[in-house]
Hints:
By secondary structure, the protein is of the alpha+beta class.
Amino acid sequence: MLAARGMQTATCRLVALCIGGLGLIPVALMTSDLGPQGARMRGIAIGIAICCLAMAALWLRGHWPSRAESLICALLGTIGIGVSALIVSSPIIGVLGTATYVQLSVFIVCFHTPRLLVVTWTVAAAVLGVLFTRLMTTDLALAICAVGVVVLLNVFVGLSCRAVIRLLQPDVHQGEIEQLTGLLHRDAFYRSVATLLASRSRSDDKYLVVVAVNLDSFSLLLGLSGSRGGNQARVAVGQALREVVRHNAIVAHVADDDFLIADTFTTADASPLVERIRGAIAVTPQRLTASIGVVCTPLPPLAAEPPDEVLDKLISIATQAIEQARMAGGNQVRYVLRPNLTDDGSETGTDTDGDWPDADKTA
Length: 363
């Protein structure tokens, strides 16, 4: 969902900022009489800061961390917050530090399972128990109030986020996003292209480009790695396509191994986009290849035609181009320029522009 809305990078940076900021707090408290005292405790504070900065760097990379990497960050964060709260000399400062479990709770609710949240809250409860014991010897009322505020804050924020996510789930399933890849589904693709045609068809120098992508040997991949491996491949390709297209391009996952992309161009040459697509698919963890059909047609004549019918014909032509690429051995591209849309879509068009690439592109 984040990637489909262009928010994945910003979310990664926000998570990195939170991790880095929390890691620097114990080091900053070393300058206070209430913070870590003694060489051992200060060494632990510095170690926590280094670990947090390393985790922040993980989230600042160019792609979303894997589930295992995210899980490790959550577990290390659980331990780090607890240790940071215990090494300070003042128990009330330690209790204040445990309030930062709120950030970790929100992260786990959004991206992980309730079982991990139980683990985090169990560790937090143990840390609060130790701090409560230390604080009650000097001020029992303060200990009860401070610990109560932290517990209520974590429980309220965690459960509220969980409720919001559950409320959003029906809209997500009935909306425009295909759940596995985070891309548009077929119906949403048609609606988005119709909007694109209505908003761009007035420009005489614009072209509509439809790119159909079919993964080569996908059935073999399923046979070797099962449905889980197939799902991982679809997710990887979906992420790769999002990263190489322009922000306003329309990208959809329409079948097991089929993807569609629609965008407008000022020229008829879509080969730079296609080559970026091929390169991105090739560097996915599965090292996949794809047969690609590309259709390019001027936008102005499309304004008078029903969008769904136009798109049906363009996709049909792109699919035929894919079949030609597959019959030639796969891992190839077939381009169709200015197709004749007045018939049943069997017309493949002709290459009439000087800026159009070669009809065949082979890896």
